[in-house]
Amino acid sequence: MLGRLNHVAIAVPDLAAASAVYRDALGATLGEPQALPEHGVTVLFIDTGNTKIELLEPLGEGSPIAAFLEKNPAGGMHHICYEVDDIIAARDRLKASGARVLGDGNPRIGAHGKPVLFLHPKDFFGTLVELEQV
């Protein structure tokens, strides 16, 4: 079921400042910022060759990233994303094993235009897990 690591997401309070650090200090090539109102975030991807880093900034009042940043004002790792071939089969298998799928349990379209689901961090050792269908 589990495929390759798609990305590691880092919540940041200021996307422009964070992307400048990745560009200037680490020499990263940056993607373009993308607003995702349905997820309450603005994202920017950095391709590292073997995976990606996703920088997340809150978008709007109800952003789930805003709540994360209240607890972690400087930012920090928000989630890890794995690829799956069949997101519905993965969801059903996980639910049958007792894992909790966040939201209404139905996939939503993520930043790459593909179906995604999030799994409760308490079921995965404190790590919020995103699954993305490839």
UniProtKB/TrEMBL annotation:
Instruction: Identify the domain of life.
Output: Bacteria
For this protein, what is the EC number? 5.1.99.1
Q: Which reaction does it catalyse?
A: (R)-methylmalonyl-CoA = (S)-methylmalonyl-CoA
- Cite the entry's keywords alphabetically: Cobalt, Isomerase, Metal-binding
Pfam families for this protein: Glyoxalase_4
Question: From which residue to which does any coiled coil extend?
Answer: none
Single GO MF annotation: methylmalonyl-CoA epimerase activity
Query: What processes does the entry annotate via GO biological process terms?
Result: L-methylmalonyl-CoA metabolic process
Q: Which residues form the VOC domain?
A: 4-134
What is the similarity comment for this entry? Answer: Belongs to the methylmalonyl-CoA epimerase family.
Protein's recorded name: methylmalonyl-CoA epimerase
Species of provenance: Pseudaminobacter salicylatoxidans
